[in-house]
Design a protein that fits this description.
It is a single chain. With about 400 residues, the chain is of the alpha/beta class. About 50% of the residues lie in helices and about 5% in strands. Helix 6 links the parallel strand 1 and strand 2. The longest helix has 20 residues.
């Protein structure tokens, strides 16, 4: 009887032992381009926290990585997942981000792929409401942090020891990594001359690398973005598409004066609570340091990014008493940080009062996506026009 009970345990131990002995390369060699194509709009954990799928995507030279947050998850007939394909862009959209994916999460992700990003065109959507009193919280960080990406970042020879030191100093500010021995060893090395140890030990790395590769082979999740909208825009020019987006937005926001999606407005009304957002739009937010870390990482990897800075819903934020001057100060500081580092930027924060650019309180959509899609394709084609971006005086 005891033997029968022990057999499953013995068998699982043997299988796990075999799993550990198989080289990582055996798993990664099974990946096929079709898997990467399916994952391009999946927004699943393999893409968000993994390494292998993104590496395969970058090596293929067929994709345009779009880093963002919750706006990427929103179903919208003008979403770049649809429009870039409709317009037959030279590169396919590859979405990286989820709600709470802010500057530091993107910086770690990009740092993990440093050796594959030289001259790569990528888009990064910056949401000014990230710049809060508290910055990235411990809970949001824990839910989105990838130890595997961090391990690849610190091993990557394309990044300077000085930049790695800055990453280590930022990461130990989160309670789950405060006592991490490797990060603390990086911080306390003199003259950045550290060459011992890794963020993960060999056993952890073995498990994470194989798990990541297996998920990239078998774990392609379908999302609502796989359901293509019935409307086709290939025959429209950008002006015609903006006009249609204006009509579409008006049709879907009839219940309120803020230009919000009717479904969202209905949910907002059901909540019946005060809309206190005073903690947002802090000009001294720690998020600005994370943005600078992201910018400096992009400079070291020699990528070709287009920063897209989106507004909040101006009418709504006025209504909930978040002062316009407070918002403008954050908009301006983001713009200054990006432009002073000679990065391309498409800043549409001056459209915060334009109808149907924002579909709720903060999420880009409808006409907003049309503006952005045009500039993404211009970036892909090498014809970015900085004159169309907001100019501060």
């Amino acid at each position: 009887m005891k033997i029968k009970l022990l057999l499953p345990l013995l068998l699982s131990s043997i299988l796990f032992g075999v799993f550990l002995l198989i080289p990582v390369e055996w798993f990664t060699s099974l990946s096929k381009h079709d898997n990467i194509n399916k994952e391009a709009t999946s927004l699943n954990d393999t893409v968000l926290k993994g390494v292998h799928s993104q590496e395969e995507m970058l090596l293929s030279e067929q994709y345009y990585p779009i880093f963002g947050s919750s706006e990427l998850e929103k179903q919208d007939i003008f979403h770049p997942a649809y429009i870039l394909k409709e317009k037959k862009a030279k590169l396919k959209p590859y979405l990286i981000g989820t709600g709470g994916s802010t500057d530091l999460i993107h910086a770690i992700n990009i740092g993990s792929q440093a050796h594959h990003l030289k001259d790569k065109k990528i888009a990064i959507i910056i949401s000014p409401q990230w710049f809060t009193d508290h910055g990235l919280t411990n809970d949001n960080f824990s839910a989105r942090f990838s130890p595997l990406q961090a391990d690849h970042l610190f091993k990557n020879m394309s990044l300077s020891p000085q930049l790695k030191d800055r990453f280590a100093r930022r990461l130990v500010q989160f309670k789950q990594l405060k006592s991490d021995p490797y990060l603390n060893s990086v911080i306390h090395k003199e003259n950045y001359q550290y060459d011992e140890g890794t963020f993960m030990n060999d056993f952890e790395n073995n498990i994470h690398e194989k798990h990541d590769a297996l998920k990239s082979i078998f774990g392609q999740d379908r999302t609502h973005l796989d359901n293509k909208p019935k409307r086709h825009f290939s025959h429209m020019n950008w002006n015609e598409m903006r006009l249609y987006a204006n009509q579409y937005g008006a049709k879907h926001s009839r219940t309120n004066k803020f230009g919000m999606n009717d479904k969202y407005w209905s949910l907002l009304q059901q909540q019946r609570k005060r809309y206190n957002r005073d903690y947002e739009f802090n000009k001294q937010s720690k998020e600005f340091s994370d943005l600078q870390l992201l910018i400096d990482t992009l400079k070291e990897v020699k990528a070709d990014p287009l920063f897209i800075v989106i507004p909040a819903n101006g009418k709504w934020y006025d209504h909930i008493n978040v002062d316009k001057a407070k918002r403008e100060a954050v908009y301006r500081k983001i713009n200054t940080m990006v432009t002073s580092n000679n990065m391309k930027i498409y800043d549409i924060t001056d459209k915060e009062y334009e109808p149907y650019v924002i579909t709720d309180a903060v999420h880009i959509g409808w006409k907003g996506w049309v503006y952005i899609n045009e500039q993404m394709i211009n970036h892909i084609n090498g014809t970015c026009n900085h004159k169309v971006s907001r100019q501060y005086h």
